[in-house]
Amino acid sequence: MHTVILVLVEVLIVIGLSRLVGLAFKSIKQPLVIGEIVAGIMLGPSLFGLIAPHAAATLFPPETIPFLNVLSQVGLIFFMFLIGLELNSKYLSGNLQAAVLTSNVSIIVPFSLATILSLLLYPLVSNGTVSFTAFTLFLGAAMSITAFPVLARIITENNLQGTRLGTLALTCAAVDDVTAWCLLALAIAVARHGSIDRQAILTIIASLLYIGFMFSVGRWFLKRLITHYRRAGRLSQFVLALIYMGVVASALITELIGIHLIFGAFLLGAAMPKDAELVRELAIKTEDFVLIFLLPVFFAYSGLKTQIGLLNRPELWLLCALILGVAIAGKYIGTYVAARVSGINKREASALGWLMNTRGLTELIVLNIGLELGVISPLLFTMLVIMALVTTFMTSPLLEWTYPKRLIRLDVVEAEAEHETDTEVTESIESFVTPYRILVPVANPTTQKGLLQLAVSIAFNYGQSAVINPFSLIELEEDYSFESTPTEANRLIAERRQQLEELISTLEPPSIYSHIHPIVRISSNVARETAQIAKIEQPDLILVGWHRPAFSNNRLGGRVGQILTTAPVDVAVFVDKGGERLESLLVPYSANIHDDLALILALRLLLNRDTCMLHILQALTVNQTQDELSYELHAMIERLPASVRERIEIKTVAAPEPMEAVVTASENVDLTIAGTSRAWGIERQTLGRYTDELAIKCRSSLLITRRYSQITSHLTSLLPEVTHQEIIRNSQQGIDNSPQSPITNNH
Amino acid sequence: MINHFNFKSLVLYGVAIASVLILFKTVTAYGENHLHATSPINSRYSLTLSKNLPNCKQTNKLILNILQSGIYLNASLSPVITNADTEQQLNLTGILKNQNLDLSGKIDIANFCQDPASQTKAIQPIAIQMSQINLDNIPGQIKLNQNSTTLEFTAIPQTDQKAKPKSNSH
User: Fold this and answer.
1) Phi/psi at A609 (nearest 5 deg)?
2) What chain A residue is nearest to B91 in terms of C-alpha separation?
C-alpha cells in the first residue's frame, strides 16, 4: 500500500480510538486527555503489538513512522503555542507570594529527590554516551513537571476556579510550568553538549537573549497586530497567517539556538498580549484541528515507543514503583510544606499537593524529547510514562477525597440558608425552621420562564420560608478546549448568571426575588452533577423542565430520565403546554407514593393560591374497591383546614383504562399533576427508562412527580407539611378557620 | 506580620535554593567521577553458527536485534531472510555486565533451520551468551534446552541503517 494511504489509515484509527477511549475515561471522571494518551499506548507494542504482532506490523510499518513524527511535531508546536497563549498574567493575581514559594519548593523537592535517585538509576538504565549531569538534569525536570493545561481543566471541572485553592493552584502551576520549561531547556542544552561546557552556556545565553527579544521587540510587534485586529474587528486569514508564520519561525529559531522547537512556539504564545477577544478567537480557530487531529497523532507516536513489555523483571517494576513514589512524594511533600509555611490550612495544602502532581501531557512532551535526544533509554521512558499516567490519573479521586465537593459548595446558597434560619420564627416543628427548597435545573433561561414561575407558585406562601435555586449547568462538551480554561469558564458563568437574573426579574411577585438564588456551575455531566448537588443540598424537590431528547422521542428519556432515575430527592418533571394560569389543577390518584407527592404539590399550590381549585381523579383498578381506596384519602382531606377543603373535588372512575379518563379530564384544567405510575403510562422500566404515555396524550400542562423516599407511603404523612403551612398563614392573617362548608364529593 | 512572613519565606526560599544547588553540584561531581553507565552496544548482530543443528541439513544465518536500556537488554533472534522492516517481538531478555551478555527466553526453532519439518518441538527455551562484546568478532554460544544442544557462534556487529534517532532528527 502506498505510504501516504497507510498514514491516512493510521490517522483514521488513531483519531477514532483516541476519542473512544477518551470518552470512556471521561465517563469515569478522568480528563479526556488521559484516555487519549492510553489510546496511543494501546496502539503501540504494549497492547496491539502484543496481541496481534503481524497486524500491528502491517498497520504501523516503520516507513510510516517518520510521517507520524512530522504530524506530531507540527501538532506539538501549535499545542505549545496554545499553552503559551493560555498563560495569562491574570493567574498571577492571587496570593502571589505563597504561590511563588509553593511552586518553587514543589519543583526543588522533587528535583532534589530525582538527583539522589539518579545515583541509583544512572548505572542501571542509562548508557555511557549520556553524561551523568545531563541524565540528572533531565530526570529532575521530568519529576518536577506540573501540567498546567491538564490542571486548569481539572480545576474548571471541579468548579474550583473561583476558590482560593483553585486560584492558588493555577498560579502555582503557571509558575511551575515556566520554571520547568526553563529547567528542561537547560537539560536539553546540557544533553546536547554532554556537560555544562562553553557551548552549553552559549546556548543558555542565546536562549535568554531570545526570550528578552520576544518580550520586547516581539511583543511590540504583536501589540501592533492587536491594534490592527481591533480596527478590523475580526481575525482575518492574513493576520492568522502572519501569526502562524511567527509560531513556526520562532520554533525554528529556538531549534537553531540549540534548545527545542517547542520553546519557540510556547514563547510566542506567552509573549502574545492577552487581548481577551483576540486570544479567544485565535485559540478557537487553532485548537480544533490541533486537538482533534494532530495531538492524538502525537499520543500514538509516543505510544508506539512505549513498551510496557520491557518491564519484564520484578526488579524493574520495583524501580518503576520507586520512580513513582519519588515523583509523588517529592511533589506532594514539597507543595504541602511550602503551602503550610505560607499559611494555607492543612486540607487546602493537601489538595494543592495532589493537584500539583498532575503531570499528564506536559510530561509526555518532555519524555519524548528525552528519548529523542537519547538521554533516557526506552526502558526509563516507559517507566516515566507510567509515572505520568498514574500521577495524572490519581489527581481527581485524591482531590475529591481531600477536598470533597460538599466543601466547594457555593457560598451564596450557604449564606442564604443561614440567613433564613436566623430570621425564622422559633417554632418547635422542624418544617418551620428549614426553608422549603426547590432546585430548578434551567437549561435555557430564555424558554423556561414557565418552569420557574411554577416553582415560585409551589414554593412561596404567606408563612413558610422558601428558597428557589434556579440551577444552571454549563456543560463543556470539549474538556480540552479553550472554553474550559478557568478564565473563559468564569466568563461563561457570569454570562449565564446574567441571563438567569434577567429571567428572575420577570417573575411574579417581585417580593420573592430575594429568595431566588441562582447557582451556575460548570459540569461535564448534567444529570450526574444534578444528582450530586441534590445529595449535597438536600432540596425538598427538584423541578425539572422537559426537553425533547436528542436521540429518542421519549419525553422522559435523555437527561430528564437520568435525573428521574438518579436524583436522591423528590423530582417533578414539568411538561409545559403554554399558558400561565394555575386556577384549576387535576391530580389523578391511584394511591402510590408518587401520587402522594403529586397530591402534596397540588395542596401546596392550593394553599398558596386562594382561587385555585383541585380536582382529584381516583382511578380504581379491577382489584380495588372504591371504599378501600377512598378511606385514606378522605381521612386526610377531613383533617385539612376548611379553606382548603372547600376547593377540593374528588371524582372516582372505575374504568379499566383510567388513562382515557385522565386525558379527558385534563382538557378542562390548567395543570395535571401525576405520579410516575403504571396507571398513567409513566413508569420506570428495566434499564431505568421511563415510559411517557400520559406526557404525550395529556391536554393540559403536566407535572410528573417521582417520590424518592420509599418509606412515606401513607397519605396522613402529608398532613403535617400542609397543615403547618396553613397554621402559619392563618396566624399571620388572623383568620379563624372553624370548620365550614363540607367538601364537594361527586362520586 | 507581613514582614515576618516575607522574611520567613525568603529565608526558606534562599535555604532551599542553596541546598538544592549544593546537592546537585555534589551529586553530579560524585556521579561524573564514580558512576559509569554501561557502554552502548550495537543494536544488530549477524550470527554465524559453527555447526548445524542436529536434524537440520542447513542452518539459517541469524540476526540478533538488541534493544538496550542501560544494563537491561531485550532482543529477538531471527533468520536473515525475514523482511528486515518487520518489527520483531523482543522475546529474549537479558543483562549486559562487564562486556558479557546473557540473554534468555523462548524461540521458535524454525528460525534456525531452513527445513523446520525435521524439528520435533517448535518453541524451545533458549539461552545466548556473548563475551567481549566490544570486539569485532564476538564469540558466543547458544543453548537450546530441548536437547541440551550447545551451539558455538561468531557474532559480527552490523552497520545499522535504522540507527536510533539522535539529537539532530525530530
Assistant:
1) -125, 115
2) A309
